[in-house]
Design goal:
This protein is of the alpha+beta class and 482 residues long. It contains eleven helices and 23 strands. A hairpin with a 2-residue loop joins strand 4 and strand 5.
């Protein structure tokens, strides 16, 4: 018996469980891309699979809908791979272990991949049957959205004829998204040198943070473990001499890092000073982040007495200078839309390598000039420290469209179904709509989706009842397009 067998709508949850069996983290999407091809062949549907693994599946219009413009249904097949400390889950080969708790679908110890596996499940459940009325459909499922919208950037949109696009990558039911931030990955590589030293090796770990999506949660005052590590190391200089041997925190710049660890070499007589400072900083941070991230801990664990390679003092100062000065968090709130973050940055990945200190920041803004201004700050900081800087995965903002027949239609359907109006909003996260809007002149886009919580974290969960309601809404939107 499958875990989701009794969840409604059955076929949507059937496909969600099926794709959850296939490893599909970013940059590891060939198997799921081929699965979608097999689906199209099995159901005798025309399809395109490009060299990157993006998939387009076509379904003819229902009787009476042949003269209507085609509708593009769009989502992405890759997921963010995050797991709890101590988990032995291998995202390269292990299926997700789904479970149901209190009306929600979650995964044991890992991200769930509802962002954006639920879009894939909706699409396949719709494509497999002729039970629902709709215009011609062009279902676009992209790769590597979570690492810079790379699939959508590389997709040749000449294979699409649709004039309307419904993106299924939103995470709050009852909200129609009609604009989003643009973004870029700001990557710094700062040269470092090592020398040998002897002493007591300690691991220091900052952990217990909530983390989360660096667009959706950046305005919720959640702590960044990499930034806190910089604060810890800077403050420790005033307490005792130490030498930094290792540092690593986070993996992706679209995830607020929940943990960061470092290895320090100190002298035996300074052990209690180190532990006392970690305790004091823990108390300070919990007070500062009370109500938003109060589970923060700074732990210290003895490893061994050893001789090991540590950073040269100048290199160590460069790393600390970067961590203490790199822009992070909300940079500016929107002056036009109350409560909307306009510009932000997230130090999502930081690590010491053999020859460089590597750092990657996700910069987002709904204003291009502001996005470039933050990027320029990080570039200037990096070059000041003798490092190299590059931008990757840049994608445009999706600007609000004054005249949108699709938006008006979706508002009307929602009002008819629920006797209330949906909220129409912009979002600080990046969506692929901006790229499709650039590629297809005149394209009319709206994004919607079911309730998801804590995406990009092992606490990610999806509300079962909301999945059903959004499915019924989507079916009605398509059926009433005239």
């Amino acid at each position: 018996m499958s875990v989701l067998e009794n969840c409604e709508p059955k076929r949507v949850f059937y496909y969600f469980e099926e794709i959850s069996k296939i490893p599909h983290g970013s940059k590891n999407t060939k198997e799921i891309s081929d699965y979608l091809v097999s689906f199209a062949k099995e159901h005798q549907l025309r399809y395109v699979q490009d060299e990157y693994g993006n998939i387009v599946i076509y379904k003819a219009a229902s009787a009476g809908y042949e003269k209507l413009p085609a509708v593009i249904l769009q989502g992405h097949m890759d997921m963010v791979c995050e797991k709890e400390a101590g988990s032995n889950h291998d995202f390269e080969k292990d299926p997700l272990r789904l479970k149901i708790e209190d009306g929600f679908v979650t995964a044991e110890g890992t991200t769930l991949g509802a962002d954006d596996g639920i879009a894939v499940a909706y699409a396949l459940a719709l494509l497999e049957t002729d039970s629902y009325a709709h215009p011609a459909l062009e279902v676009v499922i992209t790769v590597d959205e979570e690492v810079g919208l790379l699939g959508a950037q590389n997709l040749d949109a000449s294979c699409l004829s649709g004039k309307y696009l419904i993106n299924l990558d939103s995470d709050e039911e009852g909200i129609l998204l009609t604009g989003c931030a643009g973004g870029v990955s700001a990557i710094s590589s700062i040269p470092v040198k090592y020398r040998n030293a002897s002493g007591c090796l300690y691991e220091v770990k900052i952990h217990g943070l909530q983390g989360g999506h660096s667009g959706m949660e950046i305005g919720k005052n959640r702590a960044n473990a990499n930034i806190l590590m910089g604060r810890f190391l800077y403050g420790l200089k005033e307490q005792l001499p130490y030498e930094l041997a290792e540092l690593e925190g986070g993996q992706k710049d679209n995830v607020i890092p929940r943990e960061c660890s470092c290895a320090l070499l100190i002298q035996p007589e300074d052990t209690e000073i180190l532990k006392d400072y970690a305790c004091r900083l823990t108390a300070e941070l919990r007070k500062e982040y009370s109500g938003s991230d109060a589970g923060i801990s700074v732990s210290v664990e003895f490893q061994e007495e050893t001789q090991i390679g540590v950073l040269h003092p100048v290199s160590q100062e460069k790393v600390l200078f970067y961590l203490m000065n790199v822009p992070n968090g909300v940079q500016k709130m929107s002056g036009n839309i109350p409560g909307l973050v306009e510009t932000s940055t997230n130090l999502g990945a930081a690590r010491l390598e053999d020859e460089v200190f590597y750092a990657s920041c996700g910069v987002r803004s709904s204003v291009n000039s502001a996005k470039y201004a933050v990027s320029d700050k990080i570039e200037y900081l990096t070059e000041f420290l003798g490092g190299d800087y590059k931008k990757e995965g840049e994608y445009p903002a999706w600007e609000y469209r004054e005249q949108s027949p699709l938006r008006e239609h979706m508002i009307e359907v929602y009002q008819d179904m629920y006797q209330k109006a949906p909220r129409v909003e912009a979002v600080h996260a990046g969506l692929e709509c901006g790229l499709f809007y650039e590629k297809i002149p005149g394209l009319d886009c709206v994004s919607t989706g079911p309730n998801l919580w804590d995406i990009h974290t092992p606490q990610e969960k999806m509300e079962i009842a909301s999945v059903r309601r959004v499915w019924e809404y989507l079916i009605q939107v398509l059926a009433t397009m005239r």
